[in-house]
Amino acid sequence: MGIIVGFRRGVLLLLLGTALLREAFGFCTIRGQKMMNQLRFSPSNKPRRFYYATPIFSLRLPQHDKPINCIAAPMVAASDYAFRCLCRQYGVDLTFTQMLHTENLLKQETFRRNHLDLWEYTPIPAIWSREQREFLEGSKSMDDGGRLSHEQQAWTCGPVIVQLAGHDPVRVVEVAELVLEHTGGRVHGFDLNLGCPQGIARKGRYGAHLMDQDPLTACAILSALRQSLPDSVSVSAKIRLPEDPNTLPKRIIRILDTGVDFITIHGRTIRENKVAVVACHFDQIARVTALVSEYDPTIPVVANGGIEQFSDVERVRQLTNAAAVMSSEALLENPGVFALDSSLWSSRQVLNQQFLFASEYLNWCQKYPPLPGVLGQSCNIVRGHLFKILFRYLSEQPDLREKMASQHIRRLADFQQVCEELHCRYNKLSDEELDGLASSRAGSSWYRRHWSAKRIMAPLLDQQNVVISTRERKEAALSRITKLRQERLERNVVHQ
User: Fold this and answer.
1) How many CA atoms lie within 13 Å of 135's alpha carbon, on the beta-carbon side?
2) What would the pLDDT profile of 79-129 be if each residue is shown by its tens digit?
3) Measured between alpha carbons, how far is 338 from 341 in angstroms, rounded to an integer?
4) Strands 160-165 vs 94-96: parallel, antiparallel or unpaired
5) Closest CA to 233 of 184, 178, 174, 186
6) Is this structure's pTM higher than 0.85?
7) How far apart are CA 15 and CA 351, in angstroms?
8) Contact between 355 and 419 (Cβ < 8 Å)
9) Cα separation, 324 vs 292, whole angstroms
């Protein structure tokens, strides 16, 4: 057994060495080299030349015969199985797991037990863990005695891609093979996280920091995954834009040369996140799409970023020529972003839909309680989702917001009770009173919590010759203070 393991590690190290030598001496595939030569010597070497390639109109996976257009992004502590079911209920074609650290998966059995909820491929546990049983204690049962309808059963399965984070090609491949064995070879694919901008990713040498600081290793990992896994399992990378737009072609070609099946590109740089967020650079995603199409027209590109509402989905596809669109933050607040056009809805309709999302998610949790994950308890996973879905309404009801954040609220029945109490308060308001509340304005959404009038809206306002009034500035400042307070409460919940 030791000889076999040693041989496999030797093969992987050989692949890594080959990839590093190729990068060190500037080698790439013949196709990639031709493209780089064209980029260097073509007199028309301008971004605009990339915008007119023929797009791939849908993404397809080897083990999945249906086209994929709408994708739920990998989200830490938020891509639990119950939420994946809710997303599929509202039109999502492909879901991702949350990002999984390869070292933790390899070394810690507890970590695997608390994170691997790939129940699309594996049997549902006959007995829930202690944390899950405590969470379900005293909860209301689902309709029809807890049995799922035929339609609901369809939402419990669908293609899933496991996202991995790491900086050691050998270890990443070992984890991929471990997960592949865990699912009986049925998992649809693996994605390498090369887009996380957080400081913890810099310390751990993964995400966007690995791509920026050590692209040779990043590409070696992708090459090792593609050469080690069966062709029936897709390999992909999720990346961000580089700080220097001139380095974008080289970055894309490097990744394509690894043999990936598709690329997801977030249209912002490593610095453009959270309070520093800016409008998504759709022109650069379009540039990537054209580059990839020129390299190999059968490789799809997925556009990520800038999806806030239903109308944005088709708009982003038109602007970028992407094969599919991925949503993360908007989907956390509005799981129906791919299916429901709420642009003409009244405040009452929006209110009722948000509480319906919350109720439906809790119903899924009653059937499939979330694993504890990185937050340590099932209740904290649920709490995080409800804070986002009901963000605008909890912001106006500080007593219920604090109650939702309290560690005394730990059971599903407790969350149901808080949601019902919150909904009841708004149901007592007339339509006119509801329309007058800040929660009825678009700017009160969780998606826009980091938006700055100076960074995001100034270009649009300049074009329209609109001036922000003093009252609007005060309201924006007050809204920001309220959101900061709520975020502090949520952080306290996580660390308690």
Assistant:
1) 24
2) 999 999 999 999 999 999 999 999 999 988 999 999 999 999 999 988 899
3) 8
4) parallel
5) 186
6) no
7) 54
8) yes
9) 14
